[in-house]
Amino acid sequence: METIEKIRAKRKIVRSASTKFVNKVKSFLKTFDSQNETHQEQLSEYLLNLDAKQIELQTLNKEVEVSSLSIHKHRGSRSSEISGAEIYSDFTPKLLRNLIPARCQMADTFQNGPIKILIGANFLVHTMTGEPVKINKNLLMLPTIFGRTLMGQLPYSQKGEMQLFFTSCEVVESDLERLWGLESFLLGDELTRGYAAENSLSDFGKEVKKKKGRYEVPLQWKTNGIKGNLSSNFDVAEKRFISLEKRFNRDELLFERYNSVMKEQLKQGIIEKCAENCFAGYVMSHREVIRENSSSTKTRVVYDVSSKQGNNLSLNECLISGENLNPILIDVILKFREHKIGFCGDIARAFLQIQVSEIDRN
């Protein structure tokens, strides 16, 4: 009961304020001049306030009606509440009539009634019998077969509520990662270099052999039995090779360069031909890497040991990555300050000069 009484009291205040506002507008309309731009702007402002008060009053009426129905339904009786703004029943048409020039007969009689027919804008142009006349910046008067009609927009505003939630949190992890990355660049990544360094490097040094002028090393497996878990990925390798063949058909120069590299590697013993039964195990797919600015090797053949089929293990996942033996970049740059003249060189296909032991080739 307390809630509905508060709503009714608020509605009473709004009604009183609305009545005073309507009387103010009525006084203004007595001296309204449709040719005066100042009067037109003032009228537009009045219409905005009028719409706002009408919406507010209608909202309060609905709240009173719903609350009243809820209370009387609980008591088993009926009640009728005022729903609507009676004071606005014919006020908006009066405002429009004051906007219309004198001695101008409109098709609309400005009487309340149901809408019987709607005409789309694509058909409205066919009903026009003359040029439109501009009444103000928002309204046009159109001569049609039905009579003179108003077209345009009256100023309208509607209050609404918007909720915005904003959460701000400071994440320092990314900043720390960048700081650590800079430190590892200057001082070297000691954690990575020390990972499994003693065991893997010690075993690797014992197993290195030199045959016919080339070093031979076995693959460094993570565990003794993990090699048996390396399943076949022949289907994946075959699909990639078919895709490579299609690129060869589209680019003849690529095929010639690729074929030349493979023949050269076969001649140097970097790769070798194998029997058909070797495809039962893990098969490394390969692809091209083009470097036109390279002076020695413009087309490189890269073997993909990360390739795998489904959820099976790849060769990379079965091998120890080992420590990083590459020199720190800062150390290399500082060496150029030790002497007046510095020399630098590059070994072509450095990693390809090391061959894999026969036990790990198939």
TrEMBL record:
Gene Ontology process terms (BP): DNA biosynthetic process
UniProt KW Ribonucleoprotein keyword: no
Protein name: DUF1758 domain-containing protein
InterPro entries, alphabetized: DNA/RNA_pol_sf
Coiled coil regions in record: 36-63
PANTHER family referenced in this protein's UniProt entry, alphabetically: PHD-TYPE DOMAIN-CONTAINING PROTEIN, RIBONUCLEASE H
Lineage, opening ranks: Eukaryota, Metazoa, Ecdysozoa, Arthropoda, Chelicerata
Entry keyword set: Coiled coil
